[in-house]
Amino acid sequence: MTRHSPLDDPASAAFAWGRWKRMMQVMGIATAITVAAILGYMWFSETAMSIHFYIAVGLGVGASMMLMGALMGLVFMSNGTGHDDSVVDPLEGDRRN
Asked: Is residue 96 situated within a structural domain?
């Protein structure tokens, strides 16, 4: 049997998801600045590179940073709301030392 999760409450869930969305907006701004800085550095390094390389680097760095931000944000939300505490370990009483 599972315990009650704080994310089951609509008000608590709305607050937690709102905080996650704000964090993703900040992460999006940080990602855009980072991608622009990397592409700018590559442009001014005067090394002959294809436009496809610039596109691949921009998409790769941007997607990696946003995925990292989304997953870490979900970890922080799960822990910060107490959702992790609502998980029941069926083997909790069956531990052998």
From this structure: no
